Amino acid sequence: MLKVKQLNKxxxxxxxxxxxxxxxxxxxxxxxxxxxxxxxxxxxxYIDAAHDPSTSKSLEPVRIRDNITRSxxxxxxxxxxxxxxxxxx
Length: 89
Known about the structure:
Layout: H1 8-22, H2 27-50, H3 61-88
Helix pairs in contact: 1-2, 2-3
């Protein structure tokens, strides 16, 4: 079964987030960016586990929906962080 983390779009977005965050000179903002990336990966790990037949029986559907919502929010935060930094340069 295809997992979210195996999708080309996810891989491209993750590489872009990392590239943009690597270029940030402010270490506090860089740390915040990597923290958001790590949280995003955690959400996708849970979403992928929910679609795995061997583990999906023990997961709650409401929680999975919450993970999807949180992953969207994290992506929005990352996009905003990058946009704000690019606008200030």
